[in-house]
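Title: Prediction job returns without error message
Component: structure pipeline
Severity: low
Priority: P3
Assignee: unassigned

Description:
Job completed but the reporter wants confirmation the result is attached to the right record. Sequence as submitted:
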Amino acid sequence: KFGLVAVERENDLKRVPRESFYLFKKIVTKKTITEEMRNEAWNKVLSHQGSERPFCRGEDGITALATPVPRKIVKKDWRFRRKYE
């Protein structure tokens, strides 16, 4: 439900990789997270800014939620707190 691959329940449980799947694949292959990869991922988030998407994290970006809540995407970089180079 919240993983790297979406499951299309109405389509014979077909698995469809999400955008995050490809980012994770790149991280695993390169064994690092570069500034370019970080910025690319964050720019994808910003491209959805203002639209509503289901979030499974609380307002603080840390607390997990049992049920996703629709929330507008705002410019708050809680995904990458530190540099990983």
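Comment from assignee: result matches the submitted record. The radius of gyration is 14 Å.
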